Amino acid sequence: EDQVTQSPEALRLQEGESSSLNCSYTVSGLRGLFWYRQDPGKGPEFLFTLYSAGEEKEKERLKATLTKKESFLHITAPKPEDSATYLCAVKGGGTGTASKLTFGTGTRLQVTL
Amino acid sequence: NAGVTQTPKFQVLKTGQSMTLQCAQDMNHEYMSWYRQDPGMGLRLIHYSVGAGITDQGEVPNGYNVSRSTTEDFPLRLLSAAPSQTSVYFCASSPRAQGRAFFGQGTRLTVV
Known about the structure:
The structure holds 2 protein chains of 2 kinds.
Chain A: E1 3-7, E2 10-14, E3 19-26, E4 32-38, E5 45-50, E6 56-59, E7 62-66, E8 70-75, E9 84-91, E10 102-103, E11 107-112
Parallel strand pairs in A: 2-11
Antiparallel strand pairs in A: 1-3, 3-8, 4-5, 4-9, 6-7, 7-8, 9-10, 9-11
Chain B: E1 4-7, E2 10-13, E3 19-25, E4 31-38, E5 42-51, E6 54-57, E7 64-66, E8 76-78, E9 87-94, E10 102-103, E11 107-111
Parallel strand pairs in B: 2-11
Antiparallel strand pairs in B: 1-3, 3-8, 4-5, 4-9, 5-6, 7-8, 9-10, 9-11
């Protein structure tokens, strides 16, 4: 069974204070690791897909990295508008799971002035 | 481009009532799925579909039915609502098995 664990549960940063969010996973045949951002009352919004260990993706102040056991979402010099819940999900290669994403419970990030 | 549209946004049901949550996508995606999101539990897969006429169960299917008669629509039916089905429901679509999922804005359902 695929599993995803995210830490910390909640993180409070001051504007400009860089940090990282962790996503540890176990999956049978990784077909993709996904990062999403979710604002209160909204659906998850896609950020990145990573497919193999060593891969990195960047978008503005966010950078996602992947190893064989975990992924990190690095936030450089965050701004208050980066406040959101960040979700990690994996898609495995098991049978009957063609469209199944397994999600972690998320990290709730608050960035203050 | 509307993406994934869910209706209604909010709903209150009495125990035992039935209802259908609507989901429509205009991106011609083959894959569609329904998730529920509960505090501390993350998003859990209820049912999914790999194309018109093909559906399958996810992690938490009990009490829910789905059908997929067209590529665009994937309604979720609650047969006899129970308080345990109080949750936020999200519909998602993706162009292929390993593709990124596009989510709707969610339906917040309360069963009293």
